[in-house]
Amino acid sequence: MSFWAAMAGGFVGTLVLTTCLRAGSELGLTRMDLPFLLGTAFSADRTRAKAVGYGLHFVAGQAFAAVYYAVFVAIDESSWWLGGAFGLVHGLFAGTALVSTLLPLVHPRMGSAQSAANDSPLLEPPGFMMLNYGNSTPGLTVIAHVIYGAIVGGFVSLSA
Fold this sequence. Notes:
This protein is elongated. The protein is mostly helical. The model has no long low-confidence stretch (mean pLDDT 90). It contains five helices and no strands. It has one domain. The longest helix is centred in the middle third of the chain and has 30 residues.
């Protein structure tokens, strides 16, 4: 197993995941734009926020690939299907705890259930599994993360 294979898989996986989510948005399956959500935590300028968000999303993709690699090493096994299983857990975590619960607590421009009615946040709160961004959002998000995990797992297993 190679750490660098995990990093390469993380890059390719993040590229595919981001493309799937962007395509879902363009096809009207979701209103979620994950890089925009991340970027607006650092800038109110919409264009700058997207650029920053894409950078942050790729950094997060590398960080998650490193975590996947550490688990593969700890259990002394890697495969595309095991990576896909990690991706399933990752996607569920992203939709429940990370984006819908933790992000609104620290995001300066995102509304939350605790926001006052006279507040005008730049972003609406995502809600459970990001359902506020469309009924297809949870499925699309989880599937994209499963694909990401399968790619990372595949890259790592090919390097073994």
